[in-house]
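Session log. Operator J.P. requested a structure for one protein chain; no other inputs attached. Running the standard single-chain path with token output.
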Amino acid sequence: MWWVLWVLAALLALFCSLDVWYFLRAAVVILRAWFQPPVFDITAEQVLTGRVTPHDIDMCHMNNARYLRECDFARFSLYTRNGVFKGVRALGASMVVGATTIRYRRALCIGEGYELRSRIVTWDDKAFFLEQRFVSTRDGLVCAIMYCKQSVIRSSPDKIMQHLCKRKVECPEFPDDLQHWVNFISASSQTLRAESGLEEKNK
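Structure written below.
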């Protein structure tokens, strides 16, 4: 009897201190992608399907933060199937989200199905840039679109691409809207560095 109470107490502490469902969902997504056919075109669009559940909503439509959470899982699947995770591990690197921006065009309502379409658009010497779209299966409308800057640590996107493709890969051109966002990130970074005095310290 006592061991049951200990297990329940341990589970309660675990669920109170960690977002357990996030880690369980991430593990399921990665395992599922692992057993799916690999995608050899690293810039190819990949699609995950979903449906708005009561757990996702506020005021009968999908909560703003849920879009970003679903994008996390879609990127896990994308990187597993196109080999980017494999290249990152082989080079002893890691990746973190450096910036995101999302535009909401129409609410996804409870029970509504959607496709989450993710693709690597381009990259520079420090990060991959991805586009992720929420497309309603009801009428095909793009309900939300997000750009993500996936920064590479202890390596570079170019080295990862060369490792996977066994050759030098030309970087696709930046679309105008993405370039404007990248310029904003750069300007914001310079402003914050100036405010914190980092520019003066580095001189």
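Operator note: Residues 46-182 form a domain with the Thiol Ester Dehydrase; Chain A fold (CATH 3.10.129.10).
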